[in-house]
Specification:
about 210 residues; mainly beta; eight-stranded antiparallel β-barrel; 2 helices; elongated
């Protein structure tokens, strides 16, 4: 009977020994695939796109007594270039030209002033937060107004602009932006006597394609 009782013990030992040896054998399973590193978005390079929005403002000099406050929309094209530094600051240059129907009626019936087109050439300074780029911007602005005071004439105004906004990488090479600009246009001659300029606040959105 003692011999029969040893058989289960011997069998259990053989099973355990086989399991230990199997655990020591090299595994045939493939190693887990490495997780691809997600690289931060890079804002380097040129781009072009469209920009549009709404603006309102007031006239200066003699225009302040000749015309009511101006308001209206704008739509245009834009282009620029960014350089991202190792510390994530992004410097760039951007220009745009827009067509506008921003206008103010005259204090006297029949008189009016309209900003028909304007453009800017600005520097930009931003800080890249991966796919988000908040920025400040400032530079040159100029615009064409058509003024009617008894007779009509078109004048070009030099000026400057300052503002800020944020740009967002949305998909592929496409980015979207929102920005606010303050635009000051220097006075130019009215059709009769005096001068008129403009101070404008612009709220704009844009869609760009990065090359």
């Amino acid at each position: 009977m003692k011999h029969f009782a040893t058989f289960p013990v011997i069998g259990l030992g053989a099973i355990l020994s086989t399991s230990v040896l199997a655990a020591d054998l090299p595994s045939k399973k493939a190693p887990p695939s490495p997780v691809a590193a997600v690289m931060p978005y890079n804002w380097n390079g040129g781009y072009g796109g469209f920009v549009g929005g709404y603006g309102s403002g007031s006239y200066t000099k003699n225009g302040s007594t000749s015309f009511d406050d101006a308001s209206g929309g704008s739509l245009g094209v834009t282009a620029g270039y960014n350089y991202q530094m190792p510390n994530n600051y992004v410097v760039g240059i951007e220009g745009d030209i827009s067509w506008s129907n921003m206008k103010g009626d005259g204090v006297i019936s029949g008189n009016k002033s309209e900003l028909e087109s304007f453009g800017t050439l600005r520097g930009r300074l931003g800080y890249a937060m991966d796919r988000v780029l908040p920025f400040l911007t400032a530079g040159y602005a100029g615009g064409n107004t058509k003024d009617t005071v008894t007779t009509s004439s078109t004048s070009y105004h030099n000026g400057w602009t300052v503002g800020g906004g944020a740009e967002f990488a949305i998909t592929g090479n496409w980015t979207a932006k929102v920005e606010g600009l303050y635009v000051h246009l220097e006075p130019a001659s009215l059709p009769t006597t005096g001068e008129s300029g403009m101070d404008i606040g612009l709220a704009r959105a844009g869609l760009n394609y990065r090359f």
